[in-house]
């Protein structure tokens, strides 16, 4: 029999399953009916399980797409970094080239000013010297520091590694520097060990790379003639390879050298952002439990950016031992994660929020907890518990920027989600003590306050113009 419970205009449909147990107490004649009921329940659960599996597949597809986009962005960053390094090299080349040419001009000026008595000036000797022979006798790094020279070195290095100019540097192997120890193997590829620096790599494969430049550079780049390649001194080629190696090394570090702390911070921000979105949607769904929150002036409070931060124990850098063993392994990690998941999230309310708004949200959260606890007892759903922690201090509180990085649901109306924003905050909903203080004065602007954006008289900011809103995860 279906029963409707009314909680402040929120209608929740529940089911009375007491008849199931009653059926079990009947005699043999009622067993067939009970079996059919049980079968129906199992079929219903299977249907729900299939729906969950479909949703899981959709989410996995979304995660895969985001992973591909992230890799694409990393490649773009590596490409831009490479171009930046090329520009730096080109600037340095131009400087050294100018100095060299100034010296040549001075020598020419001295020769032209001297007697020309048939012996021939130095300028005449230079003009009659074969260019390749001149390179053999006087080539220096400054002479060879040209765009064509470094383009050739870069092309040879990319050819040795088997990558395109837009590809990120290849990952090192566990051992060695070449994909195969056979020097004559047609598919032999260079795999530099970036973390070891240039000197170790130079000793391991530098000489091979120099010989590759002299023998096969034309296969990868045609900017230098074979005669010029033959004439290039080996130390000049080695320095060119060194410069190219350093460029790839910087790209490698940009992609792979994210510290553990950086990765942990990014994961923490992602978790908090997800929790804010879920909490905003949950509060919006059950807002009718507190009629005061259903008025238009409270529209802002159902945006994710205005939610308080939910912190969890998994954000602590703590270690624990499995009580059943002396070492910390997979079992320990799983046990610790389970304990952390079971602990409630700690809500840190922002300093800009008034006591009145906090009180209304507390009432709403209590109503939501009661509703979902009842659902959990009948449908088996679960909800992570939250507890009120200490409020965020004034210095670390930032008023959310209504226009900063708005999500799709915040920009567009969604019949199943939160109404489209952005929404500025009403002045009456802001803690005036915080707003008038040193940390809130920069938000005294029409960019943040609803009344001032609607034509109301704007108060003069004590601390200058409004700020940029800061990091979203620290705003609420």
Automatic annotation (TrEMBL):
From the UniProt entry, list the residue stretches annotated as the region Disordered: 164-184, 309-350, 375-425, 457-476
Q: Which residues form a coiled coil?
A: 35-90
- Keywords for this protein: Coiled coil
Q: List compositional bias (Acidic residues) regions by residue number.
A: 310-329
Q: What is this protein called?
A: Uncharacterized protein
Natural source organism: Lentinus brumalis
